[in-house]
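Student: Please help interpret what follows.
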Amino acid sequence: MKALSVFFGISIVITMGFSVNAQQKKSPNPPAKKPECLIKGNISVSSGKKWYHLPGMEDYEKTRIDPLKGEKWFCTEEEARKSGWKKAPTN
């Protein structure tokens, strides 16, 4: 009987461990942007270059930011440049 109790105790601990690990591996929700930070820091899929887009620029509205891919929101152009991003080219 004691062996059975030990078995169930170990089983519970192992199961709880797997449950915790599974929860830790889930992707976190992307952080919400600050309302005052409107500059979109996008990474080009084709070139890997880091471009920032200002409101009113040609591709601003269709540009989507995915923090899980390293993309960011910036509050100022200076902040974007200091982080290694360049202003997106315009046509």
Notes: Residues 39-87 form one domain. The longest strand covers residues 39-43.
